[in-house]
Amino acid sequence: MARQLLFSPRAAADLRAILDFIARERPPAARRVVADIERAVAILADHPESGRQTDAPGVLVLSVPRRSFRVFYLSRPDAVTTLHVRHTSRRH
């Protein structure tokens, strides 16, 4: 059974910031990047084990295919919560 997908306020803000930043120069590309991130997150509903464990207890990370972004998330029996979306060039 697929798990519910949730976005923390921080993750939702991350997606808005990514969209806004890329859209300043290339609006169509911005929509494609965010759509690719959302597709990667959607896969977690059925395959929450797709990510790898981080140093933080319970937090997993998934690299977004073809994009330089990582999605940090928690997997629970009933839901996957996206905590943060970060470009790979950023440390924090």
TrEMBL record:
<dbReference type="InterPro" id="IPR035093">
    <property type="entry name" value="RelE/ParE_toxin_dom_sf"/>
</dbReference>
<keyword id="KW-1277">Toxin-antitoxin system</keyword>
<dbReference type="Pfam" id="PF05016">
    <property type="entry name" value="ParE_toxin"/>
</dbReference>
<dbReference type="InterPro" id="IPR051803">
    <property type="entry name" value="TA_system_RelE-like_toxin"/>
</dbReference>
<dbReference type="InterPro" id="IPR007712">
    <property type="entry name" value="RelE/ParE_toxin"/>
</dbReference>
<protein>
    <submittedName>
        <fullName>Type II toxin-antitoxin system RelE/ParE family toxin</fullName>
    </submittedName>
</protein>
<comment type="similarity">
    <text>Belongs to the RelE toxin family.</text>
</comment>
